[in-house]
Amino acid sequence: MKPRALAAELVGTFALAVSAVISVNNPGFPIPAPAMAGLTLGVLVHLLGPVSGCLLNPAVTIAIWSIGRLEAKDAGSFIAAQLAGAGLALALGSVLFADPVPLLVDASASTGVAEMLGAALLAFTIGAVFMGRIPDRLTGAVIGAALVVGISWAAHGSNGVLNPAVALGIGSFSFPYVWGPVVGALIGAHLSRYVRDPGDAP
Hints:
The chain is mainly α. It has helices at 3-24, 33-52, 58-66, 72-96, 109-130, 139-154, 164-170, 176-194.
């Protein structure tokens, strides 16, 4: 694993979490939080994708590893870097916002299911990118849009995070914000692989 790939995952996750922190803590922010997250991720995909794949999400990292597109040792290193980036975002948020907007964080199964649904769509899309079904010039827009839609799917029953690292970074961390995205991402990535054209290379 090249150090610059780990740096890309740390910096990218930090940037994604900071965008979420800023939008969540500014209720009158001109860009809604889901759109801010999608735009940020879309930009980062083009900036960091050639360096590390721009996963920026422990759940997606596990899912991409599970379909054979990432080595286990690299997946573990990426997750550590992502959590470090999220921790830095959490620290910065505590400096920027002395009185942050409180987020409802619970441990109900319905929260995990909501996160699972959104993460499944996001990982389905990212899986398609890793398998070469999306033209390179469109990957940022497609993945960013998938995040916006996935957040919208999840928001009826959760804070719509879809990412355990970002959940840590914005103070929305509980067990459903871990198992929901992980299970959903695994389902989405494997469905994406399953629906490939039969003639595609493995």
